[in-house]
Amino acid sequence: MKVLVIGAGNMGLTYASAIGKSGYLKKEDLMVYDKSIELRETLKKANENFEVYDTLEECLPVSDIIFLAVKPYHNDELMAEMKEMMNDQQLVISIMAGVTIETIQKGLGINKVVRAMPNLPAQVGKGMTSYLAAPEISRIELWMVEDLLNSTGKSVRVDSQMFIDASTGISGSGPAYVFYFMESMMEAAKSMGFSDNDAKVLVSTTFEGAIELFNKNKLSPNGWMKRVASKGGTTQAALASLEDNNVKELIHDAAYAAFNRAVELGQTKEEKEQLEEVEK
Ligand SMILES: NC(=O)C1=CN([C@@H]2O[C@H](COP(=O)(O)OP(=O)(O)OC[C@H]3O[C@@H](n4cnc5c(N)ncnc54)[C@H](O)[C@@H]3O)[C@@H](O)[C@H]2O)C=CC1
Ligand SMILES: O=C(O)[C@@H]1CCC=N1
């Protein structure tokens, strides 16, 4: 089996490296293509566990499974370039936010499409991926897909594309919300007089410890909050301030903003035009 990753940025490279390290494929069976010449040259010099190709003509026709890991707005141009070289036995795994299975099937003239939504912690083997496969994909092919996806962490199979867009708002974009929270706490620490480094250690160790506790048993986040908060104490003061400022509602809105944006990114030109007509 030959696997090709198209787009060697944050996520594409993460998959190529993870699959390469998993030993699942021989080096010559794992191929990477990116349109950036500089990136290709850097990757060739890095001598990773995959082969880097300069043209799609050399690698696409011989590949069995193809990862699409370019930005959603580069997809139309890429699919137009790929279409002539595709055959209906090839299986495509798209990790692009929003872009639907139907858009890819139509754009590439094939049926076997998996839509997946991973996240950046995949880079350290702690990724969370949701995925959905078109019905044309066999059980055996699905096992292969799961092996490839699980090389970066955990995965969950969902039963509609709505859940792919929804998980984009939770786990796909989610690491950025955590970093936002960390940044806010680090800024608060610095305003209290801590050095940059101490602020970083205080915050990152607190996150690490809290996650480890959470994973330790079945206690809910609220249960853990109660264990931290003493009656009339400091934590209660902080939690009351978060409640007064509707922070939960704001986080809810942020997750929905990402979910809605994923849906919007997936709309075809015709769907967008129809919506604009209705809104007029
Ligand atoms: N960054 C993240 O945390 C996550 C990103 N995604 C999705 O993954 C996809 C990629 O995102 P990133 O890796 O962050 O983007 P990126 O910008 O880091 O990488 C995209 C790569 O695609 C290459 N590219 C663009 N057009 C191309 C073409 N026609 N042929 C070959 N290569 C081409 C670019 O040169 C670039 O290296 C996006 O669709 C995004 O929605 C999904 C989950 C998480
Ligand atoms: O921001 C984005 O559109 C992509 C999808 C999920 C994470 N990054």
Automatic annotation (TrEMBL):
Per UniProt, residues of the Pyrroline-5-carboxylate reductase dimerisation domain are 164-265
Q: Which reaction does it catalyse?
A: L-proline + NAD(+) = (S)-1-pyrroline-5-carboxylate + NADH + 2 H(+); L-proline + NADP(+) = (S)-1-pyrroline-5-carboxylate + NADPH + 2 H(+)
Which positions fall inside the Pyrroline-5-carboxylate reductase catalytic N-terminal domain? 2-98
Name the Enzyme Commission number(s) assigned to this protein. 1.5.1.2
Q: Does the keyword Repeat apply?
A: no
Associated pathway: Amino-acid biosynthesis; L-proline biosynthesis; L-proline from L-glutamate 5-semialdehyde: step 1/1
Keyword entries, A-Z: Amino-acid biosynthesis, Cytoplasm, NADP, Oxidoreductase, Proline biosynthesis
Keyword Oxidoreductase attributed: yes
InterPro entries in the record: 6-PGluconate_DH-like_C_sf, NAD(P)-bd_dom_sf, P5C_Rdtase_cat_N, P5CR_dimer, Pyrroline-COOH_reductase
Main localization is: cytoplasm
Pfam families the record matches: F420_oxidored, P5CR_dimer
**Localization:** Cytoplasm
Q: What is the similarity comment for this entry?
A: Belongs to the pyrroline-5-carboxylate reductase family.
Q: What does this protein do?
A: Catalyzes the reduction of 1-pyrroline-5-carboxylate (PCA) to L-proline.
Specify the protein name: Pyrroline-5-carboxylate reductase
**Organism expressing this protein natively:** Roseivirga thermotolerans
Q: Which gene encodes it?
A: proC
